[in-house]
Design goal:
Largest sheet: 4 strands, parallel
Radius of gyration: 17 Å
Helix content: 40-55%
Structural class: alpha/beta
């Protein structure tokens, strides 16, 4: 199976780190192809940058799909939209034949299967307001216990291993602890590429599931690819 990993941010370093992390998790026989937006912001944190990212995502996927076709390779079996909030997801699904799994969508679906109420922790930016709008559109207001932010630069959070610092892990853990204490969720989501990997590193006193949105999205992308493979085999 071949999975496209789409980063609608313009930071190739973030794409490389996500693909490397997912390669360690991927089953045998799964090939990952990372693609990065060619225009927009290094990390989406505002409504304006999200709007641009939706356009950039469409162009990036079109270019990647065209390259596979030109070089005589089979199309992608599925795509992981590795940008939390998935700007332009509906347009991507309406444009390309292969299925798309989104980080926010997949992690929220997983949270709904694990508990009654979930909280979301994201990097600093306009995400709380944008996610509250998402909750209203999807009628999940009553299931979302709240949204919290980790202070600091999102790209710095993403690059924590590159600079050898443990301060960022501690900062994320502190926000998680405070969120659990204040909102009392059954499940907590660490949302966004910048927070990928933290769920496995932090320790919290409360025994509740902590979902890594990158991992949740990847598992959903694999499931969609397998379902497509099963359908083709039955024909």
């Amino acid at each position: 199976m071949k999975i496209l990993v789409l980063n609608a941010n313009t930071s190739e370093a973030v794409t490389d780190r996500m693909v490397a992390a997912l390669n360690r998790r991927a089953p045998a026989g799964v090939e990952l192809a990372g693609v990065t937006a060619s225009f927009g912001q290094p990390y989406v944190t505002t409504r304006q940058s999200a709007a641009v990212a939706g356009h950039a995502a469409l162009e990036a996927v079109a270019a990647a799909a065209a390259k596979e076709q030109e070089e005589g390779r089979p199309p992608f079996d599925a795509a992981l939209y590795a940008c939390f909030g998935e700007p332009g997801l509906e347009a991507l699904r309406g444009t390309f034949a292969f299925p798309f799994a989104g980080m926010a969508e997949a992690s929220i679906l997983a949270a709904l299967q694990l508990g009654e109420r979930f909280s979301i922790v994201v990097p600093h930016g306009e995400w709380p307001a944008m996610l509250r709008e998402l909750m209203r559109r999807t009628h999940l207001d009553g299931r979302c216990a709240g949204i919290a932010m980790v202070p600091g630069d999102a790209l710095a959070l993403s690059a924590r291993h590159a600079d050898g610092s443990s301060d960022k892990t501690w900062a994320v853990a502190r926000v998680v602890e405070e969120t659990i204490a204040a909102q009392a969720p059954d499940v907590l989501i660490l949302g966004g590429a910048a927070l990928a990997g933290y769920a496995a590193e932090i320790e919290v006193a409360a025994p509740l599931p902590i979902i890594d949105s990158l991992e949740a999205g990847f598992e959903q992308a694999l499931a969609l690819a397998r379902l497509g493979s099963c359908r083709r085999e039955r024909r």
